[in-house]
Specification:
Layout lengths: L19 E7 L17 E10 L2 E15 L6 E16 L5
Antiparallel strand pairs: 1-2, 2-3, 3-4
C-alpha cells in the first residue's frame, strides 16, 4: 500500500503516444472523512491507465473500496462496496511539477 496519495508518472515518456499502467492501493485516510456514520477502513484501489491528450494528462481508471455505514434495519455497522468504473480525471500539464 502506498504511504501517500502521490505516485510517479513520467510525462516525457507519454509524449509519443505512450501509456502508463496504474495499479495502486492507498490508505483511506486521504479521503479525510469525519462522519460518525460513515468511515472507510479498507484500501482505496485505483486501476487503469494514464496518457496525454494535447496539454492534459488523462487518467482513465476504476476505483474501488468499501464503506462502513449503519444498516437501515438493525443499525449495526455494515460494509458496502463502492465501485466507480471507467472514471476519467484530467490534469493540465502546467499543474504537474
Amino acid at each position: 500500500m502506498s504511504d501517500s496519495v502521490s505516485f510517479s508518472i513520467y510525462v516525457e515518456q507519454l509524449k509519443k503516444g505512450g501509456e502508463h499502467q496504474i495499479e495502486e492501493f492507498f490508505a483511506p485516510d486521504f479521503l479525510d472523512i469525519n462522519e460518525p456514520d460513515l468511515n472507510f477502513k479498507n484500501a482505496v484501489a485505483l486501476k487503469g491507465v494514464a496518457y496525454l491528450v494535447d496539454q492534459e494528462l488523462i487518467f482513465f481508471w476504476d476505483i474501488s473500496t468499501q464503506a462502513s455505514i449503519p444498516c437501515s434495519i438493525c443499525n449495526q455497522m455494515t460494509q458496502v462496496p463502492i465501485e466507480i468504473k471507467k472514471s476519467i480525471h484530467s490534469v493540465p500539464l502546467n499543474d504537474i511539477p
